[in-house]
Specification:
491 residues, alpha/beta, TIM Barrel, Nucleotidyltransferase, domain 5, 2 domains, eight-stranded mixed β-sheet, 16 strands, binds FE(8)-S(7) cluster, binds iron/sulfur cluster
Length: 491
């Protein structure tokens, strides 16, 4: 049996200095999603729950990782964007299949990952079917793992149909974070999304199915909110079907107490064999998604950093180390060693203090600009909140909007890695440039003359002047240089 948890890595000295250096150079990949509010504008009790959760806090996603265990394969509804051969695409990318685990296997895997990935803070169950419908396995898994690793946060994702039946147990088990996928609050809209549901021992179709699902979703949301369990609502944006309606969904879920709303673009491909894929239903483009999100700024808080990850994803959002921890690579027995996670947390606490101060200074810098320009900046980062990745190594760029009003994360753009060991394909570069639609400037830790010239020809500036700086500090410095204030120009 191969064993990827090497003795070397288990025995390696874990010093705060080593971890700090790893953070600065981007030893972890990153992304961004969730509330970016900090302690100043958030109830301390809520902040304590979200501050280490990479999905519920945009800031936390720079530092912390999640892992999913695929223990819940059964599902009680049919979504038109899902092919049951694959993972639940309410929370995962469609078209990927996860290694299904028993609760006992899940325990082995979580312990192995906790020993090896110090950033791990959250254990999620997001399918590959529905975590609440396949409740026995979900419950057993959470129970066993939280007894072994008490400080791990428990998180589950559900379509909501079976949710009301388990809210009291969710409360008893200290599951603080629940995601419900709500694609409509008008059952008529749901008819085009859900061909059937299975409820009360029978199959329902059409408007009745949609009505029941809607009522159960609303009931589950209200019950969780009453108990102060943080609810994230996921909605799949389906152009022509529910895109405009999601404005109403946002209002309703906010009124019912949702903490966060995550609008995920439909991913539709005939190769996935889904109804939408086969009938040519398209997904939205990046700018369409942004336009919708911008219309929701008065509603419930938005998560913009979702990576639509797999039901067996492991690592920082935007990276997936799941394949390193396949069951056949794990030892039969492994004892939990909390030392790496503890050291990492201490280092992160210090780093976050510095990051917070730099963010505040960056906000002041851009506020001083008199230009009024609002631009999109793409950043290549491997995590830790810094500009620390080569342009050619990026598989995604984090996109920020900057104006005198502030610097805000607005999403990510996935790209094909351009650099293949010293050379790059023109076709790949073209696709990267296309993915950067609307972006004014790219900030990275290094970029060659050739891609820089091609970006420039496409109207996109690229700079490695701010390499290894905090993201917001680099953006602010770039913005101030590009939009000098009258005071500075005359000084
Ligand atoms: Fe997993 Fe979901 Fe919990 Fe996060 S994911 S169950 S809330 S721990 Fe996060 Fe992945 Fe997006 Fe989900 S990036 S798909 S929102
Ligand atoms: Fe598929 Fe998830 Fe919908 Fe069930 S809830 S049909 S697994 S996408």
């Amino acid at each position: 049996m191969a064993q990827i948890i090497s003795l070397d890595s288990l025995m390696a000295p874990v010093t705060p200095e080593a971890m700090r250096a790893q953070l600065e150079s981007g030893g972890c990949a990153s992304s961004s999603c969730g509330s970016s509010d900090g302690p100043a504008d958030m109830d301390p009790e809520v902040w304590a729950k979200v501050k280490d959760h990479p999905c519920y806090s945009e800031e936390a996603h720079h530092y912390f990782a999640r892992m999913h265990v695929a223990v819940a394969p059964a599902c009680n509804i049919q979504c038109n964007y899902c092919n049951r051969k694959y993972d639940c695409s309410n929370e995962s990318r469609p078209g990927v299949v996860s290694e299904k685990l028993t609760p006992e296997q899940a325990m082995r895997k979580v312990v192995a990952v906790a020993n090896e990935v110090p950033q791990l803070s959250v254990l999620g169950i997001a399918g590959p079917g529905d975590a609440c419908y396949d409740w026995k396995k979900t419950k057993e898994t959470f129970k066993e793992i939280s007894a072994r690793i008490p400080d791990i946060k428990l998180c589950l994702s559900t379509n909501g149909l079976a949710l009301p039946d388990h809210v009291d147990e969710i409360m008893d088990m200290n599951i603080d974070h629940v995601t419900i996928t709500i694609n409509m609050v008008d059952p008529q809209v749901g008819v085009a999304i859900y061909p059937w549901i299975f409820y009360n021992h029978r199959r329902w179709t059409g408007l009745e199915a949609s009505q029941i699902l809607h009522e159960r979703q609303m009931l589950g949301l209200e019950m969780l909110a009453e108990r102060k369990i943080l609810v994230k609502v996921n909605s799949v944006m389906i152009p022509g079907i529910n895109d405009k309606h999601l404005i109403e969904v946002n209002k309703v879920v906010k009124a019912k107490g949702a903490f966060l709303h995550n609008i995920m673009p439909l991913i539709s491909d005939p190769a996935h064999g889904t109804h939408f894929g086969l009938t040519g239903q398209r997904g939205p483009g990046a700018m369409e998604l942004k336009e919708l999100q911008d219309q929701l700024s008065d509603g419930t808080k938005l998560m913009r950093h979702c990576r639509q990850c797999r039901a067996d994803a492991v690592g920082m959002l935007g990276e997936d180390r799941g394949q390193e921890f396949n069951m056949d690579l794990l030892p039969e027995e492994v004892a939990y060693d909390p030392s790496k996670r503890a050291t990492y947390r201490a280092v992160v606490a210090e780093e976050r203090g510095e990051h917070g101060a730099k963010k505040a200074a960056a906000a002041e810098t851009v506020a001083a600009s008199e230009s009024g320009a609002k631009v999109l900046i793409a950043v290549a980062t491997k995590g830790g909140g810094r500009i620390n990745q080569h342009f050619g190594h990026a598989t995604e760029f984090q996109v920020y909007e900057v104006s005198p009003a502030g610097i805000g994360f607005i999403g990510h753009r996935k790209v094909e890695k351009y650099c293949e060991g010293g050379w790059g394909e023109d076709a790949t570069l073209d696709s990267v440039i296309a993915a950067l639609d609307g972006v004014k400037t790219v900030l990275c830790s290094k970029i060659g003359d050739c891609p820089k010239d091609s970006l420039s020809a496409a109207g996109i500036e690229a700079s490695h002047e701010y390499a290894y700086d905090w993201i917001e500090a680099g953006i602010a410095a770039w913005y101030a240089a590009a939009h000098p204030s009258a005071a500075r120009l005359t000084a």
